[in-house]
Design a protein that fits this description.
The chain is an alpha+beta fold and 327 residues long. The protein contains nine helices and 13 strands.
Length: 327
């Protein structure tokens, strides 16, 4: 039986933190998930391998035992030993002293099959499986029962990215998902932002030994908007205003994410770049949709173009008046 390098399987170093291991696992799981690669046996086997590696390296007890095995294996190879002749006896039979072995049955995910009685590799079953009775092992050794019984274990949580528009994030929205042939409507609450997660209870992986199903989490990505820039619960936009309104004062129309826009009064002699704050016209607060951020409107003064000869003469007259006034 060959040694399996779980760290290499996930592409992480031996000093990787649990967070780094989980991040690597999620990235690979999304790539090789059977739903993404239907009918691809190689991807399915790869997915089983990364699940097995993740199960060991995210369990403190299993990882500690695995690291000790790795140290013994490395020392054995450095002394010139042949891999097939490694003495597995001290590692066989799972945990001793009546301990329970926790695991998630990969057969629930893939419909059975795969190396080992539970869909895992023989390597995993040798080191971590508490199988009853005797079974031939490497070199004629036997596995002894660890009195292990599968303990009810909750199914794995799944995560799926979902794009929403800024309007949908403002108003709230719904999505229809098809899961195992079932159509399920999911509500996206108002106020979500990029990185928000919407939980769909019990729609994740199946549990083992009677454990409940995991959850499905929809990770929200709010798409960029052509008019508004979002900063937290506040919105920012730039609105053009003609030279005459900026100089003499007046009213302009301001867009909002509501059905109707707003009218903003501009005082005389307003400079380009002036920012007006419209309180309560921003994004709703998540879980408090009655509360809103603010809308910040930046004015951009536009010049009339092209100018007629008469308009040019008037501007020249204004320039002359300004110059006389400064003398």
């Amino acid at each position: 039986m060959d040694y399996k390098d779980y760290y290499k399987t996930l592409g992480v170093g031996k000093n990787a933190t649990e967070k780094e291991i989980k991040q690597a696992y999620r990235k690979l799981a999304r790539k090789y998930h059977p739903d993404v690669n239907p009918g691809d046996k190689k991807s399915e086997e790869r997915f089983k391998e990364i699940n097995e590696a993740n199960e060991v390296l995210t369990d403190a007890d299993k990882r500690r035992k695995y690291d000790q095995l790795g140290a013994d294996w490395q020392q054995y190879q450095q002394t010139g030993g042949q891999p097939g002749a490694f003495n597995w006896n001290q590692w066989q039979g799972g945990q001793r002293g009546g301990a329970r072995v926790e695991y998630m049955d990969l057969n629930d995910l893939f419909g059975g099959g795969g190396g080992g009685a539970s869909g895992r590799s023989d390597f995993f079953e040798t080191i971590f499986g508490g199988m009853g009775g005797a079974r031939p092992g490497a070199g004629g050794a036997t596995w002894q029962s660890a009195q292990a019984q599968p303990r009810a274990r909750r199914g794995q949580d799944f995560e799926q990215e979902m794009d929403v528009t800024l309007e949908e994030a403002f108003q709230g929205a719904s999505r229809v998902l098809e899961i195992d042939g079932r159509r399920l409507e999911v509500k996206i609450p108002a106020g979500v932002r990029t990185g928000s997660k919407v939980r769909v209870a019990s729609e994740g992986g199946k549990g083992a030994a009677g454990g409940g199903a995991g959850d499905l989490f929809l990770k929200i990505n709010v798409l960029p908007h052509k008019t508004f820039e979002r900063k937290g619960e506040d919105l920012h936009c730039e609105v053009p205003v003609d030279l005459y309104t900026a100089a003499l004062g007046g009213e302009i129309s301001v867009p909002t994410l509501k059905e109707k826009g707003l009218t903003l009064r501009i005082p005389p002699e307003t400079q380009s770049g002036k920012v007006f704050r419209l309180q309560g016209q921003g994004m709703p607060r998540l879980r408090k949709p009655s509360e809103h951020g603010d809308l910040y409107v930046k004015l951009r003064v536009t010049l009339p173009c092209p100018l007629t000869e008469k308009e040019k003469a008037l501007f020249k007259e204004m320039a002359d008046l300004r110059e006389c006034g400064t003398r």
